[in-house]
Amino acid sequence: MKIAIIGGTGVYDPTMLENIQQQQVDTPFGEVQLKSGWYLGQEIAFMARHGSHHSIPPHLINYRANIWALKKLGVEQIIATTAVGSLNRKMRPGDLVLVDQFLDFTKGRAATFYEGGQRGVVHVDVTEPYCPHLRRILYDEARKLNIAIHQQGTYVCTEGPRFESPAEIKMFSILQGDLVGMTNLPEVVLAREAEMCYSTVSMVTNFAAGISAQPLTHSEVVEAMSLSGENIRKLIMAAIAALSDGDCHCREALSEYGGFKL
Length: 262
Ligand code: HPA
Hints:
Blueprint: E1 3-7, E2 18-27, E3 30-39, E4 42-48, H1 63-72, E5 77-86, E6 96-98, E7 101-105, H2 132-144, E8 149-150, E9 154-158, H3 166-174, E10 179-181, H4 184-193, E11 197-207, H5 218-242
Parallel strand pairs: 1-4, 1-5, 5-11, 6-8, 7-9, 9-10
Antiparallel strand pairs: 2-3, 3-4, 5-10, 6-11
């Protein structure tokens, strides 16, 4: 299995795949449940980040187990989805964004496979945290499908599970964040440590607190995702059909350390 989809809020089912099977993978961080299925002759892994009934909050997701499990299955390329609030008036509800940078405001999440001891210490490079090759394919396919998409954006990751205060959103705007969500960190960094290509398609579900005049609700986010979730599905399937190996360096990220080992 070389390709995986990680579905965020509103993307819980691999309905686009055929012959879907439940998989259970053991990792040093715990057991992971995921699904696999077939598309165009390729076996694809599908993982619902919050569980298939949205039962795992962002700060309790077992990010290390999830990424380890995908690596163990042989996955090389990951396309993830996230629902996000927007701080940028040009990125409107319903738009998709191929984020290319992040600001990490999470607190105390287990964010590395390298905690010293036998595995040692690793300082992974994240100059280009999201795979440029996957982002290019996703952008080209979105354009072909006439889907509104932004080629770049800075994702601010908060700890959650609460939404942000307007003062926090103002601060993130000053720091030039475009979008705010609760799950992209440490997922993107762990994928890089595991030497996998990783990209995120972010779906804007709302303007962030204080930009939007109304209080935010989770049902508003879920509703917006179900209205535009079809675009994400179409885009991911088109991108998978067009996937190739690229000229990126994601899969050599730890060459200085002798490579990632399971
Ligand atoms: N903030 C944080 N996470 C989110 C938001 C938001 O406004 N919308 C969707 N996910």
